[in-house]
């Protein structure tokens, strides 16, 4: 792991100092809020395994857990540019990282974005019922990036997997229906959806399937396809 950029708000680390090959693809892995150890909040790069088939993986961490609202995404694009030049760019994230992966596609051209349990918004004007992360969101002076759906672009394929319980269901229902958005709701899952899929040995095949442009991977039988409107039954 090599730190290629860091300031008070953002850190970007690379799996390898230089790309392994001269052509191919790279993965941007956006980290979530992490977890708390005593009085210290810890963020760890996520989805290491997902990057093994890429020329390189860049791990992007929003250090103040601002859902991107304190970040300079143009600066992030500049940092990523030398690694992304001439390559397809893919991204992945969970929870806050999933929101950031979607948001980042407006600033870095991406072929595919894969998001697990993303928030649609943390803006109280949009989601007044969302109180799970107020220790972070409550410190924001302003919301710059209000709705994830506003930052989906036509040239990117999006895969969103949402839990279907509690507030996660409410977020899922706010996402738009788009031809380039494959959005699956798991009614029996909560915010720990990716961990549940991993436990069922389904996470890795789903990730590889999405990055391969497929939608016929194995999934739990109880799920609903929310987008696109033309989607048929997904194979179990």
Widest sheet: strand ordering: 1-2-6-3-7-8-9-10-11
Strand content bin: 15-25%
Distance between the termini: 37 Å
- Average of pLDDT: 90
Q: How many individual β-strands?
A: 11
> Which stretches of 5+ consecutive residues score pLDDT under 50?
none
CATH class: Alpha Beta
Main sheet attributes: strand count, strand direction, barrel closure: 9 strands, mixed
Return Rg in Å. 17 Å
Number of helices: 6
Structural class: alpha/beta
**What percent of residues adopt helix (DSSP H or I)?**
10-25%
Element order: H for helix, E for strand: EEEEEEHEHEHEHEHHE
CATH superfamily: Alpha/Beta hydrolase fold, catalytic domain
Count of the separate structural domains: 1
User: What is the CATH architecture assignment?
Assistant: 3-Layer(aba) Sandwich
């Amino acid at each position: 792991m090599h730190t290629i950029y860091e300031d008070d708000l953002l850190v970007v680390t690379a799996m390898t100092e230089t790309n392994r090959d001269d052509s191919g693809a790279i993965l941007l892995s956006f980290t979530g809020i992490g977890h708390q150890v005593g009085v210290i909040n810890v963020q760890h790069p996520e989805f290491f395994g997902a990057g093994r088939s890429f020329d390189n993986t860049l791990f992007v961490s929003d250090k103040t857990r601002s859902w991107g609202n304190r970040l300079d995404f143009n600066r992030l694009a500049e940092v990523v540019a030398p690694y992304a030049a001439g390559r397809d760019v893919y991204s992945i994230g969970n929870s806050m990282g999933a929101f950031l992966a979607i948001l980042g596609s407006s600033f870095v051209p991406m072929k595919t974005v894969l998001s697990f349990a993303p928030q649609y918004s943390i803006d109280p004007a949009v989601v007044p019922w969302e109180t799970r992360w107020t220790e972070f969101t409550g410190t924001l002076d302003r919301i710059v990036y209000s709705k994830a759906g506003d930052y989906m672009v036509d040239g990117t394929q999006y895969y969103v997997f949402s839990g279907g319980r509690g507030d996660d269901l409410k977020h899922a229902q706010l996402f738009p229906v788009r031809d380039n958005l494959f959005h699956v709701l798991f009614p029996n899952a909560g915010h720990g959806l990716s961990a549940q899929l991993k436990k069922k040995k389904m996470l890795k095949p789903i990730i590889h399937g999405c990055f391969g442009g497929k939608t016929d991977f194995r999934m739990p039988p109880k799920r609903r396809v929310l987008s696109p409107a033309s989607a048929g039954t997904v194979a179990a």
